[in-house]
Amino acid sequence: MSSDRAAKRLTHRVAYRGRLLTLDVDRVREPGGLEVVREVIRHPGSSVIMPITADGRLVLVRQYRYAVGDFLWEAPAGHIDSGESAEEAARRELVEETGYYPHRLQSLLEFYPAPGFTDERMHLFLATELEERQPLPEEDERIEVRLFSVPEALRMVSAHEIRDAKTLIGLALLEERLTGR
Questions:
Q1: Quick one: pLDDT at residue 3?
Q2: DSSP code for 46
Q3: Do residues 120 and 73 touch, judged by C-beta distance below 8 A?
Q4: Residue 91: which residues within 8 A CB-CB, separation 6 or more?
Q5: In b/e form, how buried is each residue of 123-155, taking b as 16+ CB within 10 angstroms?
Q6: Domains in the chain, ordered, with CATH?
Q7: How far is the C-alpha of 110 from the C-alpha of 101, rounded, in Å?
């Protein structure tokens, strides 16, 4: 990256280091010369999966999200472990959360869910040719799995029953594929 497009870090401090993420507090000189303090959550990245069964239904999960204090319907997703590819993480997470193993994964999109404060990059996949296996949720996960038609899931968006951004993006791409728009 050229120097006129990159910030120059002047000072750096790790404010928090957890099992999944790190919080950096940096004083930087941004392009244009502005000096500011930036708090940045460093995240290893995630894989998001839009699993479609042979009969065209979408597999979604519902789980409690402490940060927002509510249960949310979401596309299955999870962080990428060290040394793991986004595709490997997608396969692992889908089996863990839903019990479905995808024999076919297609990369749809990579995006930054919240670039104002985190470097997390999400890798969105379409999963097909699903094989049912035993779900393997992590110890702290209580997950409900349900299948929905894509039109039903889109109605859930309009009814504010799906409010998770990664799932909204995935559904928009699925709708585009179905309608050709």
A1: 54
A2: E
A3: no
A4: 101, 102, 105
A5: bbbbbbebeeeebeeeeeeebebebbebeebbe
A6: 8-42 (no CATH), 46-179 (3.90.79.10)
A7: 21
**Residue 29: both structure tokens together:** 């000189």
Mark 96-121 as b/e (b = at least 16 C-beta within 10 Å). Answer: bbbbbbbeebeebeeeeeeeeebebb
Q: Is 16 exposed, middle or buried (0-12, 13-18, 19+ CB in 10 A)?
A: exposed
Catalytic residues, which ones?
139
> In terms of C-beta distances under 8 Å and separation of at least 24 residues, what long-range contacts does 145-149 make, across chains too?
145/59, 145/60, 145/61, 145/97, 145/98, 145/99, 146/59, 146/60, 146/61, 146/62, 147/53, 147/57, 147/58, 147/59, 147/60, 148/57, 148/58, 148/60, 149/56, 149/57, 149/58
Tens of pLDDT, residue by residue over 127-141, are 999 999 988 777 777
Q: What is the pLDDT of residue 26?
A: 97
Q: Which two structure tokens, joined as six digits, stand for 13?
A: 């401090």
